[in-house]
Design brief:
Elements (H helix, E strand, L loop, with lengths): L3 E8 L4 H14 L3 E8 L7 E9 L12 E6 L2 H7 L3 E10 L6 H4 L9 H7 L3 E3 L1 H8 L5 H10 L6 H11 L5 H16 L6
Parallel strand pairs: 1-4, 4-5, 5-6
Antiparallel strand pairs: 1-3, 2-3
Length: 196
């Protein structure tokens, strides 16, 4: 199988690294060669975090180029706008509708564009309110797992394997909430609630 490239983009504290780790473990358990890379930009202070997971029969590098990601999962709108050029033509762009304003915006030195969603919609983005679904699941911290659920619809792995891997990866007291979050994210895209 030709390598599949999944890029996850967010900011520190959103759980992008945990989400990438779950995806990598699912792909490994399915018998694929997997490579994973992480780029932290002041992640502890809300800076950008990009993670790339590549899997296939043989993968030589975790590095990808602009225009090469099969799936780009963005944990918030500004990071989606920053990373949209990484998704390949015909690739899948999955975007959480949340906005986390960077420091220059917070101190008044810059302004967030008003038309981020419209711009991303022109690029074919599929929108999902991951925070709302995470709260429905029982914890706003599970938005990353909601996004994994939505992503899982476009990948070849079984729902059961995702559930087993999530259950083994998250803290035991949060397993039920995270499994519910995964189910809600998956269902949103299966049932067409993801907004294109």
């Amino acid at each position: 199988m030709k390598p599949v490239t999944v890029m996850l983009a967010g900011v520190g504290g959103q759980g992008t690294i945990l989400a990438a780790d779950v995806l990598a473990k699912v792909a490994t358990a399915s018998g694929f060669d997997v490579k994973l890379s992480e780029v932290h930009g002041m992640a502890q202070r809300g800076g950008s975090v990009d993670t790339v997971v590549r899997y296939g029969d043989e993968v030589f590098s975790p590095i990808t180029d602009p225009g090469a990601a099969d799936h780009l999962v963005c944990f918030e709108l500004i990071e989606a706008a920053r990373r949209v050029q990484w998704v390949k033509p015909g690739g899948r762009l999955l975007v959480n509708t949340r906005t986390i304003e960077p420091l220059p915006v917070l101190i008044g030195a810059a302004k967030t564009p008003d038309d981020l969603e419209a711009r991303l919609a022109e690029e074919g983005a599929i929108f999902l309110d991951a925070e709302a679904l995470a709260c429905e699941a029982g914890s706003p911290k599970s938005a990353n797992v909601v996004l994994l659920g939505a992503l899982s619809v476009g990948l070849e792995f079984s729902e059961e394997l995702w559930q087993e891997t999530i259950g083994a990866r998250v803290p035991s007291k949060t397993i039920d909430v995270n499994l519910r979050a995964f189910e809600l994210g998956r269902r949103a895209c299966v049932e067409g609630e993801c907004m294109a």
